[in-house]
## 1
Amino acid sequence: MELVSLFSGCGGMDLGFLAAGYRIVWANDFDSDAQQVYSTNIGRIDPRDIRDVDEDEVPDCDIITAGFPCQPFSNAGNRRGVKDRRGTLYEECLRIVKAKKPSVVVFENVRGILSIRDHTGTKLMDQICRSLEIEISPGYNVDYRLIKASDYGVPQNRYRVFLVAIRKDYARTFTFPEPITCDKKTLALGNVLNSIPKDAKNQIDWPLSPQALYMAERIPEGGSWKSIPYDQLPERFQRIHRQMKKYRSPNFYRRFSRNEIIGTITASAQPENCGILHPVENRRLNIREIATIQTFPHDFLFNESKISGMYKVIGNAVPPLLAQIIAEEILLQVPELVKRDLETCQRWAI
């Protein structure tokens, strides 16, 4: 099963598909931090802007995966959608799909993509589905779903949209796997942190700013900025506190407790915007800790000389465990891929 990976990032999606038995024949990402991590752990990656890559330079393949930039669609960003130059990069994915006609296509993105509309007023997901179903020959049967990562054994309440398209000549539509039955207590933050070997690499954190450290020192385990007495809040937070309805009661500086499942690990890693604070220590969760929450193995290495960049690429990644579950389900539902792969191996053996 030969896979072409677009917008590969640091390799979360690819790692999951590798674990399921796929072979990556070509990968691409423009981000230099992601490239460095990918090449260290997985292999060669084309560093060019995908817009500069001709379709003929991309190898034939059974499957194309893509996690095109999510920032234009993210609730944590400015949600400019297709008005953002990055917001049209899904068209590059469709361009490659049209040329290569793989058996299966897998796209992943933030849930904000479900409400974004393109320049015609059409919902972007409807446009993407229409392109795959009708505008690309022979066309694809498409389904997509908003998935909660913790439902599939990932120790993180991370919501992401997965789209899986199967070429119509296979005469079937992908059925997403049902959530895994497991004791959610095993996904609690404390269990995840305790699972990290003491000698694991990359146990280094990005130091907090003076204000962030001031806030962290006053927030108890399981609390947030709202746990700080009003008279100890910086003036800006006092102003927000006085107008909670106007600001929609934001939950800045969330500090998840050890018995909770943590929220989304984000690319920004700013404590004001996500629960990146360690449950009991006054610091950010370190590189190895957030990588483990994202289900990267303990021997997957990151570049400590570019620490903020590592928080970014880990936050942008698809949890490898979640990718593996999707990858294995595809093989169950499209067994022809396995059969053809075995036939290819036999021909090479001869």
## 2
Amino acid sequence: MENSRIVIDGRALTCAQVGTAAREDVTVAIAPEGAARALAAWRVALEVADAQPVYGRTTGVGANRVVDVEWEDADAHGLRLLRSHAAGAGPLVAPEIVRAMLTVRLNQIAAGGSGVEPGVLQALADVLNLGLLPPVPVYGAIGTGDLTALASTALCLLGERSWLAGPDGEIERGPGFTLRSSDALAFISSNAATLGEAALAVTDLRELLAASTVVAALSHFAVHGSEEPFAPAVQDACPHPGQRAVASAMRTLLAFEQPAPMRIQDPYGYRAFPQVHGPAIEAADYAEDVVAREINAAAENPLVDVAGRTVWHNGNFHTAYVGLALDAARAALFQTMALSAARLGTLAEPAFTGLYPFQSATEASSGIMILEYVAHSALADVRRLATPAALGSAVLSRGVEEHAGFSTQSARASTDAVAAYRIGLGCELVAAARALRMQGRAPAGGPLKGAFDLAAAVLDPRVEDRPLDADIAVAADLLPGLARVQGYSS
């Protein structure tokens, strides 16, 4: 990306760039090499389909794969396919997820391998640049292809359906594109919606996990915690990469503070923080690697092999890797969020803070008591959402498609889990900053001082009993800034 421009080439799209295209005002452009790959694949697809059966081009789909499409019916076949598959249900997904889907599908086609007529690249870029959205309902995919979402997109391109535009979702006719009938399956045979949502979720998760280390350090400072658990000798004795990275970050954040610890051993929320937070960071990093690999892959069925001038019928449409990686990330997220809630509990205890219970203004006041309820409410949702989507399966299309990994549901659960985590972490930040203010203490220097200064500049300093909902919202919004304080960059 250069300035406010993202160039799509089919090979180098990152999850962070998907997030930028989905959420920010940027221009999307097509790299010449991406257009060239798409053109070459399209030409080979036409050539091969003239010589042999090609799934979806010269045959029906699913259980109808054994039915040949007669040449006189070829022009109508693809349109029927799009109409029959544009049957999602439920509320529409968030606009940012739709834009992420369009960005991913654009990149996939530029990777070469779909055989879709290359003119669709500019059509999709125009849609993104004009801020148009196809209507995409929540229900319709199970991790083996976002057929309903992309069929709806195709009908919008053809002019059969109207685009949604603007914050209120008003109807608008957009640029039309004559998608060829033979390209119908090739266009919709993709997991672009699932991958787009997954890219947003892992980008947000990695950012929040970076912020978590800063928040944990503020809490650690507020309770006069021991730095022994983060010592290099301790980490070298059990050298998991994520654990060591977290301990190193904590040493950097606390480098300017040398208080005498109040206890010989701290609770697990502090003492075992590297051992619990490290796996979450590793799981999120792995999930991002998997999603990035998928969004830059020509994971098409059938795959158009330009070099071999043939097509291959295959299973690359199955996103088991993505679903399993996201499932693992949510399980690790629950573990580290549980530690955040535990640290919040210590911040309400006089034995740890030296303040009144719940950091209250008077001995009988409620102070931050309600923050624990909010955090545990969010934690309960993350626990529910941590159930692996991969435990489900399905047998469809008269038994021909006899497995599904439900990566779509895993991506959706990850989106919701990240949102809940943001709230719980915001509660801990409110409590940590308030404790330090009431103690009359502040970090002496370094990135922890920068983090505290950011929080102190925007969080309400009043300690009398009052509604804390605005404080939680402000703290949650501050978390990306805290991630950058630690040096995080997407």
## 3
Amino acid sequence: MSAQASRYGHYTRLKFDKPHPKVIRITMDNGKMNTADAAMHSELVSVWRDVDADPEVNAVVITGAGRMFSAGGDFSMVQAQIDDFATRARGWKEARDIVYNLINCSKPVVSAMRGVAVGAGLVCGILADVSIATKDCRILDGHTRLGVAAGDHAAIIWPLLCGMAKAKYYLLTCDTLLGAEAERIGLITEAVEDDALDARAVAIAARLAEGAQTAIKWTKYSLNNWLRQAGPLFDASLAMEFLGFDGPEVKEGLASHLEKRKPAFPPNSPF
């Protein structure tokens, strides 16, 4: 068994290949628009630890299978978190660990987004050290449309990337951003044509993989202290998101998604 098969062979929702001797490409693939179901959500926690510990990897590309990056959280997982406290608590811990494990992964990460980028997949897309999307990729946070607070990665990094005014607008309204506009406002690194996406992501990852490894790792670590010092802000946003899974708004938000209609949220908040 190869070292790669031994280290990554247990993954079921993430696929792995080596487009460069020192670059590993992670492909989210579950046959359902690459939504983050319970299995993928869990795997997005552990993969950053495995990559970090892999001596054969200097850089990472994360992408989605086919024409889709990730369509967000699987609705069955959302329903399970609404129904059961233990599932909700586990989801909170995993959501926290996806963010912190990616921040703390010493290897530089390049994301390659096309189609739709939402939810847990978008966490990895935006928190990547270099984020690339097709010009027509639809980027959407999605939390308030579902009926929960914008937790996950949103509060910790959107204001830092695109400024508070833009972050507030897109996180409060859940309007969709196309890749070209996301690049213009600074939310992502670069927007490219679809046929250039994969090669561009691999080229950047290969350049990083062939560079001065200690210098690159320590530069990433230093820059990510901007995110670490925002840890209490992130923790609060994530706690508020998961508190919302016990409320009425998320039930209506989920129902409206399943029934493909506009939501009718309660008119007033008790807070």
## 4
Amino acid sequence: MESFTYQPSTSAIDDIVAVARDARKRAGLVVEEQQRKDLMRDIANLLADRRAVLVAHYYVDGDLQDLAERTGGCVADSLEMARFGFEHPAETIVVAGVRFMAETAKILSPEKRVFAVENDANCSLDLGCPANEFGQFCDQHPDRTVVVYANTSAAVKARADWVVTSSIGLRLVQHLHSKGEKILWAPDKYLGDYIKRESGADMLMWNGACIVHEEFKAVVLQNLMRRYPDAKVLVHPESPASVIALADVVGSTSQIIHAAQSMSEKTFIVATEEGILHKMRALTPDKNFITAPTAGEGATCESCGHCPWMKMNDLQRLKNVLVHLGDEVRVDEQIRRQAERSIRRMVEFGKQYAPPVPSA
């Protein structure tokens, strides 16, 4: 079986790391409790006045998740966010997440105004897969079906035959493999490797990674498992294979939440971005959730599983967006039309193979 991994330049990787460091410095504004309550009240009023809906990812701050649900929006993984924004009648969509999520909302709903809470909130997977270089990679393998993860730019999606999220990636590749199709996969090498091992498909890999999930460490996770021998381990498939091998459940954000709800165990070690714990604790307050380790022995923190770009979404930034309604998310129309085709295929496939929806 043919195998290949694209290796981005050292300078490209260094650039991603530098951007991540800058995002960490800019992430999150600390507010007092009364100011927090005032902001949440003001934002709820502004959403109503603007006839806007807030769509939030599980990884953003818990206040934003709560606001989205209380004001008629949604908290979800990227597949459900895309579906919700497309189907909702609101004239304006505000996306609390990262840049590609807001772009996806605009691609599916070009007639609506779309805003990101923070336009500079990006993603290492997106940054590590430049459209021009990816296009050259595709040109070298015209016989392959191009499947890209949702964590990519509109221009990369425009080049794809299919867009997938982690909730349906495996099932989609299994479907294509059953038809004898060979896959060109981008950008997450860990998710791609997991899908390749599980499906047996012939896949060429782009060499990208999430800066959060790549840092989970199997050796330190094993130490934590020894401390909590009754805990079940829930792992996102963007993690390294050595971490996935320790999992009781491997799945997307929605699938991880559903697993915690449906399993009888009371303690869970969770290997994904720490923002998900807000929803997990709200849905199952009688259970104990521990973030999987991202640091080695002797490090200053045992668990640092947070995305610096997701943490750039905060209440003050959200209010500023709703007050000014400036810097609307825009996508070149030709790219939008091309990307829309592959995203709509994802949405339609997802309707057939949707993950369990977490419920209260």
